[in-house]
Amino acid sequence: MSFALIMLIGLLLDALIGWPDALYRRISHPVVWIGALISALETRLNRGSDTARLLRGALTVAVVIAAATLPALLVTMVLGEGWMAALILGLMAWPLVATRSMYSHVVAVRDPLRAGDLPAARHALSMIVGRDTRQLDSAGVSRAALESLAENTSDGIIAPLFWGAVAGLPGIVAYKAINTMDSMIGHRNARYEHFGKCAARLDDLVNLIPARLTALAFAVVSGRMGAALRIVARDAQHHRSPNAGWPEAALAGGLHVRLSGPRVYGDRVADEPYVNALAPDPDRHSISRGLALYVRAMFLCGAVLVGLAAV
């Protein structure tokens, strides 16, 4: 069976339909189910000495991955080969790809910003980023929205599709479990520094290749491939994340804007270096340009899956 075909079905369904609100109200969402398991385990196990927290965190990672992946593996084995099996597995992969929701969340920031409603744009931005958005100006809102678009294209779309194309439904499910654990417990603070360390390091590892593929996709469809790749080669390594700097640098180079830079998280100011520092700040129209580049990257991703499925 072609794993690429399964991922192509999931990608197309999500791009065309998204995850309908009616379906969410009825059965919620698989990532929410995974999150509930993570939360329950964290509440019971995140205690004791630093060493105990580290070991209990590693145990949590193993339990969550097993609980999420084993049912997917069993379903894959039961369905066997054939078009019907591929269709059913594609339907099951569908909610694990965030193509449409990514676009919608960024549009929710773009539209009020373009209309001059900065408070509404800040509020919409606060739904997709962790930083304090209350004091951001128009350029700051645009910059943060584009950074979120770049990072989440990698984490929410390219990475799940990559691991799904490699290992089928178990691959995409395992990736989403790891990525959800990182988002919930992979933080460097007093509560999660040790308990979430295994989850955070594993997330870095599984995003290593997809982040670089995302950067390449952005560069290829940007119309400024050479410039984008030069910015990636120069600036990606200076980002706080070993992976997020790649798609951010490619998007910054492709749009000829500067991204990253200092930002506020609660009462802490993170003095981060700029990506593509010599370029101008993004303006209120830059988000539309970023979304157009994102759409082209998704068409490229679909074309690659078609090619892999054909092979």
TrEMBL record:
Membrane topology type: Multi-pass membrane protein
Xref: Pfam families: CobD_Cbib
Transmembrane domains' residue ranges: 57-77, 83-103, 291-310
One GO-annotated biological process of the protein: cobalamin biosynthetic process
Subcellular location: Cell membrane
Pathway: Cofactor biosynthesis; adenosylcobalamin biosynthesis
Keywords: Cell membrane, Cobalamin biosynthesis, Membrane, Transmembrane, Transmembrane helix
Main subcellular location: membrane
Gene Ontology CC entries for this record: plasma membrane
Domain of life of the native organism: Bacteria
Keyword Transmembrane helix annotated: yes
GO MF, any single term: threonine-phosphate decarboxylase activity
Entry keyword annotation includes Nucleotide-binding: no
InterPro entries: Cobalamin_biosynth_CobD/CbiB
Family affiliation: Belongs to the CobD/CbiB family.
Biological role stated in the UniProt entry: Converts cobyric acid to cobinamide by the addition of aminopropanol on the F carboxylic group.
NCBIfam families: cobal_cbiB (TIGR00380)
Protein name as it appears in the record: Cobalamin biosynthesis protein CobD
Organism this protein belongs to: Antarctobacter heliothermus
